[in-house]
Amino acid sequence: MGSRLIRRCLSAVRATQLIAVSFLFAAFHLYARAQSPSNPAILDSEFQSAIAARDHGDLVRAQAILLDLHRRRPGNFAINETLGLLYVSEEKYAEALPLLQAAVREQSSSDAAHANLGANYFKLGRNKEALEEYTVAARLNPRNSATQQGLGELLLDAGKPAEAAEAFTAAHAANPSDPDLALSLATALVAAHSFDRAQAVLDTIPRADVSADAQVLLGQVAEAKGNALDAAHHFQRAVDLEPTEEHVWMVGVEFLRHWTFDAAVPEFEAATQKFPGSTRMKIALGASYFGDEKYALAVPVFASLLDNDKDNALFAELLGMACNTVAEAAKMRCSSLITYAQSHPRDARASTYAASMLLTETASEHKTDQARVLLTHAIAAAPHFADAQYQMGLLKQEDGDWQGSIPNLESALKLKPDLAQAHYRLALAYWRTGRKDEAQAQMALQKKYSQQERQDLDQRLRQITTFLVDVKKQ
Fold first, then answer.
1. CATH homologous superfamily of domain 269-470?
2. Identical topology for domains 2-155 and 269-470
3. Tell me: the pLDDT tens digits for 242-260?
4. Quick one: fold of 2-155?
5. Which residue has the higher pLDDT, 5 or 219?
6. Where are the chain's structural domains?
7. pTM reported for the whole predicted model
8. Residue 345, Cβ neighbours under 10 Å: how many?
9. For all residues of the chain together, what is the average pLDDT?
10. How high is the pLDDT of residue 308?
11. What is the 3-state secondary structure (H, E, C) of 63-132?
């Protein structure tokens, strides 16, 4: 989340790194005279012609002169650096790379050269090398605010928020009135869980009440401090200022995070209308319906997700959870679960959900046969999956095979001792086979764990909502 918020700063930072171009153009004659033992005046004159061409927008002529100079003086730092930066200005990053690399080798003490090479690596998507170059540049010149800012961006992108905060702190110290730098610093501090420091920085930003990014950060700080209402207020304010998908998502997720599903439902209903292509909004809507016990509404949402992504195990599981909580009349869209389970025999969870659904519908030989095949696949794929063993035991009891159900139910309880319905079904099997004392013991355990099924469902829902809180944009 943190790194996404500061993407708005990256273009400004990358542009800043190219400020060094004008400095190098202005100072080149000093390098040229120092490195040209024969006729430095000619070399300087030719370079000045390149500069003049560049200033008049004739980049073709400037490039031609610099290429000729480079051919004659391939080891000259200033020629390499200047020609490389000319390529950068034309967005020819691959052509610029060997020139900027050579310049760094020739003047390893130049912080500007390392920063410019780092910026070029970044443009090429080579962030690891970019970070290495910015690190060197910052070490050579720790007071360069632009370098520190670029270093902070790269460290944050690399998942090192505490180090990023140090770099942004140095940049911010040099430009304390720059609100973008303050936001970048606060972002790194939030990502590093330094919430008090982040709050202090955010408090210095003028007109933070009209900055969507500031409001998001204030919401994150409030959430971390346990102030859910304040967090929701800030996230909603961000939406009011900039109704982007990311901001709308954060408002809805804030309700999910605290299991206020009744409030989450209208947020995600509106969000799925506003952002119809967003998968995560649809997942969240289904989860909100489910959490609010509107299971019949959750089914078509999860079924549509699975229909559009037929190999998605998460969508199959979500649909399986919903289909096992609704009445048979609401299961029309649950056929997608059966189709998925049949084509993914190694997905034990989906196969078990599908079999369980079939066994709770109006009995038919065809449905029983389908369930048996699905459970056989589930147990073969995951013999230690307690729910699959339980459902197989249940199926055998439906067939009248009480004795045969016992091993499956015992296995289920060995794997999951608090599975209340398995205790109940095992009690029935023991009773039917004459083991009445053991049956009574199982009934006692069933009463002890009678709330477990709901708790299991809640636990899985909590895992799913936790996943949703962290889910990336889809």
1. Tetratricopeptide repeat domain (1.25.40.10)
2. yes
3. 999 999 999 998 888 888 8
4. 1.25.40
5. 219
6. 2-155, 269-470
7. 0.71
8. 16
9. 86
10. 95
11. HHHHHHHHHHCCCCHHHHHHHHHHHHHCCCHHHHHHHHHHHHHHCCCCHHHHHHHHHHHHHCCCHHHHHH
